[in-house]
């Protein structure tokens, strides 16, 4: 077990890539919902 008071390791490039992929997924979903609205689609059946 790590002693108390130690800092957690600094985030590396992979953590940054996770946030980039999450942001692109959310952006893609938003654009898909906007396209669906153009065709009169509904989100719920």
What class do helices, strands and sheet pairing give? mainly alpha
Total strand count, please? 0
Largest sheet: none
Can you tell me the residue ranges where pLDDT is under 50 for at least 5 consecutive residues?
Answer: none
Helicity range of the residues? 55-70%
Count of helix runs:
1
Instruction: Please give the alpha-carbon distance between the first and last residues.
Output: 51 Å
Gyration radius from CA atoms, angstroms: 19 Å
The geometry reads as rod-shaped
Strand coverage percent: under 5%
**SSE pattern, N- to C-terminal:** H
Mean pLDDT: 84
SSE arrangement:
Elements: H1 13-38
What does this structure look like?
The chain is mainly alpha-helical and 45 residues long. The chain is built from one helix and no strands. It has one helix spanning 13-38. It is rod-shaped, with a radius of gyration of 19 Å. It starts with 12 loop residues before the first helix and ends in a 7-residue tail after the last helix. The model has no long low-confidence stretch (mean pLDDT 84).
